[in-house]
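Can anyone check this?
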Amino acid sequence: MSKMRLTPMIEAAVFAALAVILDLLPSIRLSPAISISFAMVPVFIVAFRWGLRAGLISGFLWGLLQVVLGDIYFLTPLQFAIEYFVAFTFVGFAGLLYRPIQTSLKNGNRKQLLMWAILGVIAGSLARYFWHFVAGFIFWGEYAPEGQSAVMYSLIANGTTVLGAIAFCSIVIALLAGSLPRLLKTNQAAWTADNRKAS
């Protein structure tokens, strides 16, 4: 494996570990089912630097590390797979905005760069929490308040969480705006050609 192909994989693993560390920090907990943090930011950065594939790998590794560290609670094997592997992997969908982010970076347009990065945050967050929403009404519906449907219960819990996560992560990305060009710039000619084939 060439150095250019190895570098994104190493970064995906390192940033996944950073996401785990950030997840251990105190978060905004509105209820037992609603906890908001900015732990997705490292995976977003990998996705913005290297694209969809690296972002998906980093998200998957984040979920895997959660399992390895025992920071999990699950009801069934299918719910476990959805919420710790599928959902976390889908954070990497922020990499769908890789090309406009890198174009804005190349053109030196910081306002556009920030706009595309925040859109990437929205894309990755919605992709992840769609799966938590699905798992919520299928597996956690019995915890819904009396008279409330499982779908509405999951929509409220996960909708609140995803909106909070988008806001929190967007604020962090905005605070990093001055450093974004340095954070997202890579020497990637070989990886870009390879990444186009995968996306």
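Reply from J.R.: I decoded it. The first strand starts at residue 28 and ends at 31.
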